[in-house]
Amino acid sequence: MSADSRKAFSHAEELTKFHPETLHGFLMQEPYAEYVKRRGIALPEHPTAESMPWKLLPELFMRIVEGETPPDLVRDIVLIAEMSKPQGHEKLKAEASVRGIEIPDIEGRTLHDYAMRACMVDRKLLESAHSRVVLERQRAFDYYPPAAGISEAAIRTPKAADIRALEKRLSMWFHRDNMGRAATVIPYEFTDDLWFLIRHGGRMEMFSDVQDDGKLDIHFIRQLHYDVVVFNRRLGELKIKAPDKLHASYLFHFGELLTGDSNFFGKRELFDLERLRTFGRHHAPWRTVADVECCGLVEMGYSIRHAAGRTDTRRSKTCLTNALLPSEDLVPAFAERVEYAVFSVRFGRGGKPRPVRIKAGRRANYCRDNDSIALEEWLRANGFMLSRELSIHAAAA
Q1: Is residue 292 domain-shared with residue 196, that is, in the same domain?
Q2: Labelling 184: which of 50, 53, 165, 396 has CA 20 to 30 A away?
Q3: Looking at 208, 224, 259, which one is the last position of a domain?
């Protein structure tokens, strides 16, 4: 989570977006009330726009003191800032409605007030709504199929105790990599897929600012980060949205969690774009699947190996639509490999086509939230995503 997530708490002017009663009530909660006293800030008994110490409060939120600042404070202000955005606000209202939770209203309430009051009523409500926002904004995944030689799998359904054990193992791994001690895993279930949101810390970062008296102040902050792991129970595939350095750890731990085999997931390539070489002077043979229709290939990149062993990637100027192809080959004969392709894809009837970028190997980038689920079937049907039959059954309890 970037430092921008805490921008709503960084200056007195930003804090005035919160109603004085809301901000006062938030800070008077324990353990925050005691923390405010230790920092030498006196809050008024009757908060108003004139009586609140606006200029003193930014330092309370932004200056994190190891061992003194309540651990939940940083998490709360990040969640509040994120859920104060319009998209987050709508998710938060929907989550509150589903759970039957009423957020107390006040005159002149803003989106910031709603998020902070939701946190005061039920912190888990804010966390759950925020988790859904993070999950749905994912637009790029790396895919990992079962390792070579695996033809069947006994899939486990993780229980609460399994998730807690996974959190402990991940926490140890993050700590060894200087990324803090805490990791939280939040599971969600969607038809064939199990989604896991992993919340963890990053490495310590240093920020500096200049105080009103001209002195330079240094802050050390461990930012929040969110990763997503998705397991397809029908195909036995795992897809990951996380920094590359974390993939090996997630493959190991989620293989153990879901199948009992830490080596279950392999690193063989899943996307193969070489089929584009077969396209000649005819109509594009796209297959429409479940209201997913390809309207054309708008860009392609291929690699060329030079005599010295160096490899370059070039962008192709040849595009493929549903019209007749030009006379030249779509992929030059001297190209060593098709590296990526950008397709124009229409989702649903009458929708506007959107670009989808597929990279040879295991990475796909999508234009809009949730496009990945709809597009995977189209990629398989058109021969760009390798599939392999796998005998899947539930593990014995």
Answers
A1: no
A2: 396
A3: 259
Considering the domain architecture, whether residues 69 and 144 belong to the same structural domain is answered as no
Distances (CA, A) of 69 to 54, 59, 144, 218, 369: 19, 12, 40, 15, 36
- Residue 71 lies in domain: 3-136
Distance CA 339, CA 352 (A): 26
Q: What pLDDT is stored for residue 365 in this prediction?
A: 82
H helix count then E strand count, the chain: 11, 13
* pLDDT at residue 59, rounded to an integer: 83
Task: Please give the model's pTM, rounded to 2 decimal places.
Answer: 0.69
Q: How many domains does the chain have?
A: 3
d(CA 145, CA 249): 16
Place of tokens 């929040």: 224
Q: Is the dihedral of CA 204, 120, 188, 356 positive or negative?
A: negative
Which of 231, 259, 287 is where one domain is finished? Answer: 259
b or e along 109-139 (b: 16 or more beta carbons within 10 Å of the residue's beta carbon)? ebbbbbbbbbbbeeeebbbbbbbbbbbeebb
Q: Which two tokens stand for residue 92?
A: 């938060």
The string of pLDDT tens digits covering residues 148-179 is 777 777 888 899 999 999 999 999 988 888 78
H-helix or E-strand containing 193?
A: strand 193-210
* pLDDT at residue 370, rounded to an integer: 61
Judgement on whether residues 237 and 304 belong to the same structural domain of the protein: no
Q: For residue 89, which of 98, 79, 99 has the smallest C-alpha distance?
A: 79
Whether the CB-CB separation of 337 and 303 falls below 8 Å is answered with yes
Residues 238 and 283 in one domain: no
392 in a structural domain: no
